[in-house]
Amino acid sequence: MKSCRWRILCAASAVALATSFSPAIAGPDDDTLRAAMSEEILNLDYNYTTKREYIILAQLTDATLFELDPETQQMNPSIATGYDWVDETTLDITLRDDVKFHDGSMLTAEDVAYTYNWIGSTLSESNATGVVDRWLETAEVTSPTTVRFHLKSVYPLVLRDMSNRIMLRKSGTYDGSGEIDRDAMASNLISTGPYKVASFEPGTKLVLERFEDFFGDKPAIGKIVVRNIPDIGTQQAELMSGGLDWMFKVPLDLAESLGATPMAQHSSGADLRVGFLVLDAAGYTNPDGPLTNVLVRRAINHALNTKEMAEYLIGGSAEAIHTACHPAQFGCDQSAAAYEYDPAKAKELLAEAGYPDGFPLEIWAYRDKAASEAIAADLTAVGIEVDLRYVKLGSLNQARAAREIPAYFGTWGSGGTSDTAAIARIHFSDESDRNMSGDDALAELVLSAEQTADQEKRKEIYSEAIGKIANEAYWAPLFSYSANYLLSPELEFPLDPDGLPRLQNSSWK
Description:
The chain is α+β, with helices and mostly antiparallel strands. It folds into three domains: 159 residues, Periplasmic binding protein-like II (D-Maltodextrin-Binding Protein, domain 2, 3-Layer(aba) Sandwich); 99 residues, Dipeptide-binding Protein, Domain 1 (Dipeptide-binding Protein, domain 1); 212 residues, Dipeptide-binding Protein, Domain 3 (Dipeptide-binding Protein, domain 3, Roll). 30% of the residues lie in helices and 22% in strands. It has 15 helices and 18 strands. The strands form four sheets. Strands 8-9-10-1-11-16-12-15-13-14 form a ten-stranded mixed sheet, with helices on both faces. Helix 8 runs antiparallel to helix 10. It starts with a helix and ends with a strand.
């Protein structure tokens, strides 16, 4: 596990490539930060997208009612100046009166109410509809600077949702002409964030300019150019020749190798994404199968050398985890049971469960092939005959929905949200096929945490839920991920603990 032939060859190639270029370093001469993204950028409206690339862009172009402080996890005012709970299901939001859209028009309470009501409507078919529909009954204008939100029930995460998912649009944006146009902002985005769109060639290049009428602190860099460059090698060549200042999702060894040259700097930080092995404890694939036995599930946990996986296969700031959530998330109680790496103990538990010679186990995976193979190797070492099925994510999702998967290696990034709610609801409520525990009481417990506004009570509920998941070994938690970047030596790019890249906070050295 300590070596990977592919990584070694790529690292060597990176060093050779680096030394073949002259040291023409990108710099601040034209005050333009040039960034690369491998994924195609086709739609600028985050109300209709989901990927991490679109989240990064939304941070640049959009502003929300509230803003999450990644250091303290506190919700700070942004377009909203404050809020008041009239009662448990009625929330009054007060707005700034100096917020402008990128076309120069002023943001109004009507715009805010329209945005939320539209996204909450099934007609919108927005990617954010599921988030809003959990809690929003209707949004009502109560004055030129106040909006009243009527909730369906008690929901303590309203401010969180307002801070990271709902991007404000002008009233009538999607249906003002009498016809529905869900792509109204896909290319010609008019929003309220620190940067405005100067030009956009879908799938090729996006040019952003600092919005001088932005209501908040203006970014230090005047222009950002984001190019779609699918090939990581091309990105590296551009960075070293001065054509790029920023690239992300860089393999660790490549980032370390190029960061050791004078042409680039390597930056590594935390990422809220975690990896885990989900086990069919409910017996969907086999009602009498070995995974329905808690001793077998505990044996699997003991068999996995998660520390070495984190250190040698993920690298950077990645760490082994023992909970079904990221340790940095609110409510992720680290006092839950931890299963130390102990192959001998794993074999004892298998024998106690009635499987002294092991059993065959099909494990599905869709990413991080080296880690997938390490999982298979560790389980094989204790007698479990692993059939590793490495497939596309879409195939895995379909098979899981059909209850055809006994175990799978999955990951979850929580949308950059440092709250256990962002992973617990998706994986352990009765609303998701990702929940393979079959534990109705656990599902009820997880959802109950979203039905109280008392933060201490929420923490207690999540602590109980995370503890139960650990005790029953419904998962085998593996590791957190690390975010690796390559930067121009003249770029200052601060990293935040939630792992979300905020290019708007960049500056020149």
